[in-house]
UniProtKB/TrEMBL annotation:
Cofactor entry: Fe cation
Keywords: Iron, Metal-binding, Oxidoreductase
Record domain Fe2OG dioxygenase: where: 216-317
InterPro entries associated with the record: DIOX_N, IPNS-like_FE2OG_OXY, IPNS-like_sf, Oxoglu/Fe-dep_dioxygenase_dom
Keyword Metal-binding: yes
A molecular function (GO) term: dioxygenase activity
UniProt protein name: Fe2OG dioxygenase domain-containing protein
Family: Belongs to the iron/ascorbate-dependent oxidoreductase family.
Protein's UniProt keywords contain Iron: yes
Gene3D superfamilies named among the record's database cross-references: B-lactam Antibiotic, Isopenicillin N Synthase, Chain
Annotated TM spans: none
Organism of derivation: Vitis vinifera (Grape)
Highest taxon of the lineage: Eukaryota
Length: 372
C-alpha cells in the first residue's frame, strides 16, 4: 500500500504528504504491516519513518548485560530463596529487567506459544480480518499499533491481543490456530506470576503475599507481537522507546533478537537465551514501591530479516467500576520520614492507564504526571 503521496514524501516532497489519510488507508486495509510486506514493498511508507529517533546502532554497549536469575529450588531451599530475593532486589533497583531460567514452564510450551502466534499472523489475510478492530474492550483483538492515531511515527509490528484474566474468553471465542496453547500457557504463566509476586514482595521487605493481596496478579493481558522483515530498518522501530503499563511483564522472545533496555543512558541488548523468560518492572510497580523498583525504558529494533515474534503477558490490576473513586498511593509500609512518598494518591491505575493510552508510546513516562 504505497500511495503516490507516500512516494513523493519519501523523495522529499512534503507538500503532498497527508499523514492522516495515510494512517486511515493503512488501518482500513485490516492487513497490518504484514500486508505491506506481502504486497512486496521495497520502501517503507512515510508513516513508519521515525523522525525523532535517528537510530544509532553503535549506541548498544556490548559490555553490559541484563542479570540472569536461576529460580531452581526457590521454593524448597530457604538459603537459595534468600539469595534469589537479593538478586531480584538488585536487578529491580538497578535495571528494572532480568531474565529467569529454571522457571518450570516447559520449553516445549514456550516454543508452541511462539508458534501459535506465528500461525495466527501468517494466516490468509481474509481469515485474520474478522479479528481486526480498535475496540480494545473486546477480549480478543488483532491490530497494528494501539496508538496508531496518537503516535508521531508508526511502529513496524502487528499485534494479537487477548485478555486472559480475570475473566478469560471461552475457548470458542479464541482463534482456532492458537486456542489450545493460549489456554495451556495461561495456567503456566499465572503460576509463575504468583511466584514472582511473592519474591518481589519479599525483595521489598514485605510479607510474601503483600502484592498478591493487592491483586497485582489479578489481570493478565497477552500481546503476541509479529515484526516482519523490514526493507529499511534504519528508518523505523519495531517498538518505540517506552515503559510498560503494568506491575510486571513476563516475555517470551524468539531467537531473532532486537529487544534493548536503556541502562545508564546506554542501550543494552537483551539477547535471546533458549528457555529463558524476560521479566521487567512496569510503571504500576514503580508507583506502589515508591520508586524503589525501576520501570525502565525499552525498545525493539526493526530488522531486515524476520519475522521476529514475541509473547508478552502484562500483569495489571483490574478496578471494578464501583471502585473507580478509590485513591491509591505508594505502599504505606515502605514510607518513612527518610523515605516520603514521591507520588501523589490518585484514582490509580485507572487514571494512569487512560493517560498512558491517550498519549501512546512517545518515550516519556506516564508516571511523571503523578509525581509530587
Amino acid at each position: 500500500m504505497v500511495t503516490a503521496s507516500t512516494k513523493e514524501a519519501q523523495e522529499g516532497g512534503e507538500s503532498s504528504y497527508d499523514r492522516k489519510s495515510e494512517l486511515k488507508a493503512f488501518d482500513d486495509s485490516n492487513l497490518g504491516v504484514k500486508g505491506l510486506v506481502d504486497a512486496g514493498i521495497t520502501k517503507i511508507p512515510r508513516i513508519f519513518i521515525n523522525e525523532q529517533n535517528k537510530l544509532d546502532m553503535s549506541s548498544n554497549n556490548p559490555h553490559l548485560s541484563v542479570p540472569i536469575i536461576d529460580l531452581e529450588s526457590f521454593d524448597k531451599d530457604a538459603v537459595v530463596r534468600a539469595e534469589i530475593i537479593n538478586q531480584i532486589r538488585d536487578a529491580c533497583k538497578k535495571w528494572g529487567f532480568f531474565l529467569v531460567i529454571n522457571h518450570e514452564i516447559p520449553e516445549s510450551v514456550l516454543s508452541e506459544m511462539i508458534d501459535g502466534i506465528r500461525r495466527f499472523h501468517e494466516q490468509d489475510g481474509e481469515a485474520k480480518k474478522e479479528w481486526y478492530t480498535r475496540d480494545y474492550s473486546r477480549k480478543v483483538t488483532y491490530s497494528s499499533n494501539f496508538d496508531l492515531y496518537q503516535a508521531s511515527s508508526t511502529n513496524w509490528r502487528d499485534t494479537f491481543a487477548c485478555t486472559l484474566a480475570p475473566d478469560p474468553p471461552q475457548p470458542e471465542q479464541l482463534p482456532a490456530v492458537c486456542r489450545d496453547i493460549l489456554m495451556e500457557y495461561l495456567k503456566h504463566v499465572r503460576r509463575l506470576g504468583f511466584s514472582l509476586f511473592e519474591l518481589l514482595s519479599e525483595a521489598l521487605g514485605l510479607h510474601p503475599n503483600h502484592l498478591k493481596n493487592m491483586e497485582c496478579a489479578e489481570g493478565i493481558l497477552l500481546l503476541g507481537h509479529y515484526y516482519p522483515a523490514c526493507p529499511e530498518p534504519e528508518l523505523t522501530l519495531g517498538t518505540s522507546s517506552h515503559t510498560d503499563a503494568d506491575f510486571i511483564t513476563i516475555l517470551i522472545q524468539d531467537q531473532m533478537g532486537g529487544l534493548q533496555v536503556l541502562h545508564e543512558d546506554q542501550w543494552v541488548n537483551i539477547p535471546p537465551i533458549s528457555g529463558a523468560l524476560v521479566i521487567n518492572v512496569g510503571d504500576l510497580l514503580q508507583f506502589v514501591s515508591n520508586g524503589n523498583f525501576k520501570s525502565s525504558e525499552h525498545r525493539v529494533l526493526a530488522k531486515n530479516v524476520g519475522p521476529r515474534i514475541s509473547v508478552a503477558c502484562f500483569f495489571r490490576k483490574i478496578i471494578p467500576v464501583e471502585n473507580t473513586t478509590r485513591l491509591y498511593g505508594p505502599i504505606k509500609e515502605l514510607l518513612s520520614e527518610d523515605n516520603p512518598p514521591i507520588y501523589r494518591q490518585e484514582n490509580f491505575p485507572n487514571e494512569y492507564l487512560m493517560h498512558y493510552d491517550s498519549k501512546g508510546l512517545d518515550g516519556t513516562s506516564s508516571l511523571l504526571r503523578f509525581k509530587l
